[in-house]
Amino acid sequence: MKKLATSLLAAAAAVAARTTESQTHREMASGLSMPIGFKNNTDGSLLAAMNAMLSASRPHHFLGINHHGLASIVATTGNPDGHLVLRGGKNGPNYDSTHVEQATQELSKLDLNPRMMVDCSHANANKDHRKQVTVLDNVAEQIEAGSRHILGVMIESHLVEGKQPIAEDLKQLTYGQSITDACVNFETTTVMLRKLAKAIAPSLHASAT
Fold first, then answer.
1. What is the pTM of this model?
2. Which of 34, 83, 118, 122 has the most other CB atoms within 10 Å of its CB?
3. Domains of the chain
4. pLDDT in tens, 137-148
5. Is the distance from CB of 137 to CB of 118 less than 8 angstroms?
6. Spatial CB neighbours of 160, under 8 Å, sequence gap ≥ 6
7. What is the dihedral of CA 24, 30, 32, 37, to 10 degrees?
């Protein structure tokens, strides 16, 4: 699969909970030259995401569009850089140390990447964007306690807090405020990322010496 010009603009990608089971998304992920996160199902189970990681890590052939804009058979070599994203489920959050350890064990049984990302939003925040701060605080505490199973976090962030409906007159929209999921604002995002950076700093220093 040839690299698209736009691929240079993205460092990583993620497949949402409701499309993790999609074969089309798994095939596309197998040909992307970047890490791909697969979210656990909305019911909280990890199996579909782990199966997606396995599938995307292997070569695929499928009908697609080539760089000339023509229909063609696309061949991929597989993407070894898939990882799990914990986003919570219908039974509640799954970001705490107990859930992270359980996920690590399940991933290891399938020889998959045992390090994962935590989604601070969605079911982990009970759909309350303000609770993302609580989730990140817990993740930072896990890292400070020595956990090496968390490789990053996902935050729903924008310039202005909250969300807004799409108005008929687009000029009425508030610049920098989400029109989809509610987000934390830029100032809160800054505080969250600084807290995470502080938690990570000792391990970065240790690996550099």
1. 0.91
2. 118
3. 12-208 (3.20.20.70)
4. 999 999 999 999
5. no
6. 174, 175, 176, 177, 185
7. 80
